[in-house]
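To assess whether the prediction recovers the assembly geometry, we first specified each molecular entity separately, as shown.
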Amino acid sequence: MNFELTEEQRMTRNMVRDFANDVIKPRAIDIDREAKFPIDIFKEMGKLGLMGIPFPEEYGGSGGDTISYALAVEEIGKVCGSTGLSYAAAISLGATPIYLFGTEEQKQKYLTPLAKGEALGSFGLTEPNAGSDAGGTKTTAMIDGDEFVINGEKCFITNASFAKTLIITAVTGKDEQGKNIISAIIVPTDTKGVTINSNYEKMGVRGSDTAEIILENVRVPKSNLIGDPQKGFKQFLSTLDGGRISIGALSVGIAQASLNRALAYAKERKQFGKPLSSFQAIQFKLANMAMEAELSRNIVLKAAWLKDNHKSFSKEAAYAKLFASETAVRNADQAIQIHGGYGYMREYEVERFLRDAKLLVIGEGTSEIQRIVIARQLGC
Amino acid sequence: MNIYVLLKKTFDTEEKIIINDGQIEDDSAEFIINPYDEYAVEEAINQRDEHGGEVTVVTIGDEDSDKQLRTALAMGADKAVLIDTEDDLEDGDQYTTTKILEAFFQDREVDLILAGNVAIDEASGQVGPRLAECLGINYVTTITDLKIDGDTANIDKDVEGDVEKIETSLPLLVTCQQGLNEPRYPSLPGIMKAKKKPMEDLEIDDLDLEEEDVEPKTKTVEIFLPAEKEAGKILEGEVEDQVKELVSLLKNEAKVL
Ligand SMILES: Cc1cc2nc3c(=O)[nH]c(=O)nc-3n(C[C@H](O)[C@H](O)[C@H](O)COP(=O)(O)OP(=O)(O)OC[C@H]3O[C@@H](n4cnc5c(N)ncnc54)[C@H](O)[C@@H]3O)c2cc1C
Ligand SMILES: Cc1cc2nc3c(=O)[nH]c(=O)nc-3n(C[C@H](O)[C@H](O)[C@H](O)COP(=O)(O)OP(=O)(O)OC[C@H]3O[C@@H](n4cnc5c(N)ncnc54)[C@H](O)[C@@H]3O)c2cc1C
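The predicted structure of the complete assembly is given in tokenized form:
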């Protein structure tokens, strides 16, 4: 066992930490208040090679590993949940499926600009009537000659308004048992028939773009299908496994930031003539927050390590996502509590941490769904 | 151009510093590149990109100093040299550092050496100038701009907020002041390449030095933290009364008048 980061992992973390503190942190309150997607920050992250951490150089990536990527997400998440979510979604959902299952041609054409940070990608799975139950997908992709004709509607899709490519899941046919075959298809956003609206008023991650996608007789070449035409569903389930690590990492960032803020405040703020941190009731809160943030980080990095070492990581990724996101919610809530009335005010930022954290127990598989995944792994 | 950067690992002074038995606890300290040395690294890279040549980053430190060197390589330096004195030397001061660097530079072709203005830990600001004296080359401290044309260097030097314009010639040593440039973040591709760049490990032995040759000329008698700041006092009431009270406090309590 070795808990030491490699030189590259450590340098990546430190660089992202510096970048996040210098560039993103000063804008986090405005990003949330104005609910404005900070596209310029993504351009800068692209130049630093951050958008391509887990992809090889031949596709414009940086040739890093999942651990480095998770560390980067954590550092961004510490200062801004909105930027963290859009960052994690762009890589884990928008680009990874092409890397994992795409053809050489698809990788060259679609993955390279994403990995270089020249464009953003989105993954459209959720529909108004198919959220947790992804198998209930209603969007269809019918073959017509050399093309798919896609019709349907997607909702809550991260980064879609700023994306160049969408990966859309759609029913492409039925298998022998008469069950729907669901596949993932690359749809450039400038294709005719694609309409993208982002009119949601969100509770948190307000600066992360979230959009609805309407697909009306959208025609793309058959060659835009990603991976095995029969195994689409399995493929995107494994995409979600990887995505869970990044949501876990983002959660660790918020959990840690909540602790940092609460600890600093508790040492400074005096009531009854003493710092809050001298009251045992507050100390116990801080102790729990510190412990759970560290345990969350451990399981996130373990899942990332398993993935990097080509071992199965589904269960650990579910543990990581579930435990870390619930920790983020708890820690953010406690951070507000420790701040008292000030914590309720936007200026102190901890209330934003809670609003942002709440998304993490919902997106990319709710807490309930994580428990279902884990139970299934236990053989239930 | 043969460009060298003198780089020091320091603890992050923004982090809490703990002193134990008259020594700074370095187990819990976060270590960073001395911030002024980051300006030096950035400037070295820019000068190389403009004039060609090679940037070598040199540090005197311990086994762990390779971390800061790797970061400089990730920023874009070409080579690194770690002079590890951990096993050979108990203490060192600016004399020690200068002596070792003098030996290191003895038979190297040098056009430009960049150092930080000061190291934020001990803040002596001496190593650069003393080394230049030993090597018999020109030096300018606290520079905020550097233009090189052939063998001529045109420099802006910060003098307590004013600018002094200086023309001098290579070979040259400069120490870098805030305002010289904006140090870049090491990019991901830079970080990945850093491992493949050459890093030379030296000990004082390799420089034909003995412990006696570099024995410090000074002795650190005590290390202590600054006294904790007392809470300030905010005066209230009419301005006139406040002024009276202030004068009285300055006279009777602070005894500065
Ligand atoms: C800000 C944001 C960004 C998003 N980004 C994307 C994106 O980029 N791409 C994308 O495809 N989707 C995205 N989503 C959608 C997200 O993944 C879904 O909202 C999530 O999977 C839940 O689906 P749902 O909203 O339809 O809720 P439902 O599935 O209707 O769930 C409602 C509740 O019922 C529970 N539930 C459902 N089934 C069960 C069960 N069998 N047993 C027990 N409880 C159950 C759920 O846990 C939940 O508590 C995003 C959502 C948000 C809010
Ligand atoms: C929207 C809003 C409306 C409000 N309206 C009013 C109003 O109309 N009138 C009014 O007078 N006030 C009002 N308040 C103020 C409110 O009552 C205080 O915020 C609250 O009493 C907490 O005080 P504080 O914010 O100073 O937090 P602190 O007293 O600084 O408390 C911070 C944290 O330390 C904990 N703590 C403090 N002392 C101890 C201890 N000895 N042991 C263990 N834990 C301790 C607290 O429980 C809390 O978790 C309002 C606040 C808000 C946010």
